[in-house]
Design a protein that fits this description.
Shape of chain A: globular
Helix content of chain A: 40-55%
Strand order of the largest sheet of chain A: 2-1-3-8-7-6
Distance between the termini of chain A: 50 Å
Strand content of chain A: 15-25%
Radius of gyration of chain A: 26 Å
Oligomer: homodimer
CATH superfamily of the largest domain in chain A: MoaB/Mog-like domain
Largest interface: A-B, 89 and 88 residues
Number of helices of chain A: 14
CATH topology of the largest domain in chain A: Molybdenum Cofactor Biosythetic Enzyme, Chain A
CATH class of the largest domain in chain A: Alpha Beta
Chain lengths: 417, 417
């Protein structure tokens, strides 16, 4: 099946936002064994959108729209596609009830245009929106598949992964399905990982082995088309075993979970509690950890200290450690160590992580941008400190520091009996 | 002039990389007053690339290619466009010398295919590549403009900003440039903001007024084409004044900065310090604030308490407030208030923000997902508490709570003398 993704939104054509939806959907369709031949972006303009549909119709069997199904007058995708297909727009009653309930439960006035989000193209299948109000649509006409997803990623992703994925499997009736397994790595860069595996990546055509980088992590997708899950599993297992042999020490999960979730699971297994003391990461480490549902079982809390006075007041680090001639300073191995130990004591956690360094854009204490100390303190045990020298901007220094802290903890937990 | 951007590369269609080039080029063309009507992505396939050119030819006056001009057999853009235009490929001698010199000066063997990077479409203008080896091309045929840029951003950007920009100004002879101003809003949803301004948005063609949503915020772009900056400014000022009159109370900046930066600037002006106590937002509020460079001037720190014991130990909230029959519980107006006041006292800040609530996915203390209390405590002054009922998933509840806390502080700071 040949697919074309049409992203609708003038903000994309003005360069105000980047089309990350096209990337997500391309990956998702590849995962279903559907080839994307074209991606198109068109503005919030009915005439040009119709033109784009006409073009896509000549070169694709599946046209996947994202954007333009919200409440405003600019949101024209359903209207335009309905018109192109010669169908009416109807109201999807469950969605309308949901919209009305949404506003009435907040006691807020509903702007009339919000009703547009319950629109359905006559004869289409509704795609439920778990995280928003606009219902998606999917329809087959004259052998071409059409699906409409919202533009905001937090609504689009669950709709793609849930109801649209199921509809595609049902409608396309594919027998040789694509099976894949995600392997997730940390503590190693993409190019180093690729260098270790280059013969496997280049040499294997079935399963295929495709690495790609995420912020502070690397992901490998091992994929094969097979007639049954059993057949696919056997092929995938053999390839994963080859990969594990080479770079198993960096592989923190054989499924698609972020590093913070892998760490939380290990803590849960061992009934251990975690707390953090953050300086240059400014709360990012806690934010990553608490983004995982259920993290309150293992994560106690974090003390974010953004000044020396706070390191003294909230963490009890002696001021003589932080300031004055000959003091190691806030950005030092010994301060990182003290921060990790102190937060452990204050919270009563089993593991304390501390991050202190220079996120930039300017140096601090005469120390260069990118210098970061990460300390991991075990209650009643040792404290280890890692010194990192990152290149890259403020945001990249912060995320890589937080991910490295998590990776180092994961490593230590793996060895802890 | 109507432009279409064609990005060439199978890696884009597989979702291995995101098309940031399209964003950069769209912004750059908007800055030159050139309207981008379509963005297209096509793989490294001559037949489908030719198809894309044929489509673009019917709807654009300027077709801007990026990608596919490197050394490999996959790099087909020059070959395909030359063939489409009925022109030969020639060698650009200065580029060829540069390529040969590049390899000989490093003493490394030159793979023959590297010569392809010196190819020029007969009759085209060469666009110098400051940061790489592949020469760009620009040509006009039958009234349509064509330009070819490399795919790697570090080669593409200087070629666009330098030689291509100059060529476009020369060839198109444009005098009217596009000017625009970004207005940023918080504390109001996109559809409500649009409802307030619908006559302005629909009625104005010069300047144009375009709203779009960001997570927890709304942005409006006011744009006009004018012969001079003075003329443009006058037109934009008049429209911004109309908007300010209607919804000024939600407009936190007349430039493109995030809410957290606007809050930090207000704090700086008034020489005030901020600290936070976070429960369900788990560090996200601190992370947002500290993502702004220089935030250490106003932000002291944050105490993230993810359990009742931590609220008691680290913030000194009485356990009787949090647990037991008749206790208000951690998710309550009075706990939010105490958290904000306590963090103010502990850190010595002027403003303390607290967030406590249920981010989900499951309820807590028998209270529903989405119920969040936000408290703002002024040292030596009042504490205000807002109760929110969000719909949406964990991530959305967290981000909207953090942004709302910042908006409420911005409001209070605006009124504080």
């Amino acid at each position: 099946m040949k697919a074309e993704i049409i992203a609708v939104g003038t903000e994309l054509l003005l360069g105000q936002i980047v089309n990350t939806n096209a990337q997500f959907l391309s990956q998702g369709l590849a995962g279903l064994g559907i080839d994307v031949y074209f991606q198109t972006v068109v503005g919030d303009n009915a005439q040009r959108l119709r033109q784009a549909i006409e073009v896509a119709r000549t070169r694709a069997d599946f046209i996947l729209f994202t954007g333009g199904i919200g409440p405003t007058q600019d949101d024209l995708t359903k209207d335009t596609l309905a018109d192109y297909l010669g169908r009416q727009l109807l109201i999807h009653e469950p969605s309308m009830s949901k919209i009305e309930h949404f506003f009435s439960s907040r006691g807020s006035h509903m702007v009339e245009s919000n009703r547009r989000q319950a629109n359905m193209i006559e004869g289409s299948v509704p795609l439920a929106n778990e995280t928003g109000l606009a219902v998606g649509n999917a329809i087959v006409q004259d052998g071409t598949l059409y699906a409409l997803l919202p533009g905001p990623p937090r609504e689009m992703k669950p709709m793609f992964n849930g109801p649209l994925r199921q509809w595609l499997i049902d409608v396309s009736g594919q027998h040789n399905l694509l099976y894949s397994r995600i392997l997730r790595f940390a503590g190693i860069g993409e190019s180093s990982l690729e260098a270790e595996l280059i013969d496997i990546i280049d040499g294997q055509t079935d399963p295929t082995v495709a690495p790609y980088a995420k912020e502070g992590e690397v992901v490998i997708r091992v994929s094969t088309k097979a007639g049954s899950a059993v057949e696919a599993l056997g092929k995938i297992d053999r390839t994963v075993a080859l990969i594990r042999e080479r770079v198993g020490q960096y592989m923190y999960a054989e499924e698609d979970i972020p590093l913070e979730e892998a760490v939380l699971r290990k803590l849960r297994d061992k009934r251990l509690k975690l707390s953090c003391a953050e300086s240059c990461s400014g709360g990012l480490l806690s934010e990553l950890i608490t983004s995982v549902p259920g993290s309150s079982g293992e994560f106690l809390g974090s003390i974010v200290t953004y000044t020396n006075t706070m390191k003294h007041k909230l963490l009890g680090i002696p001021l003589s450690q932080l300031e004055g001639p000959g003091a190691p300073g806030a950005i030092s191995e010994s301060t990182a160590q003290l921060m990790a130990q102190r937060v452990n004591e204050l919270t009563g956690s089993d593991w304390g992580i501390a991050i202190t360094g220079v996120a930039g854009p300017t140096e601090s204490e005469g120390k260069p941008v990118g210098l970061v100390y990460i300390a991991l303190a075990r209650r009643g045990g040792e404290t280890t400190v890692h010194s990192m020298k990152w290149s890259g901007n403020r945001s990249s220094v912060r995320i890589r520091s937080a991910k490295t802290a998590l990776y180092r903890l994961w490593e230590l937990l793996k060895d802890e009996t």
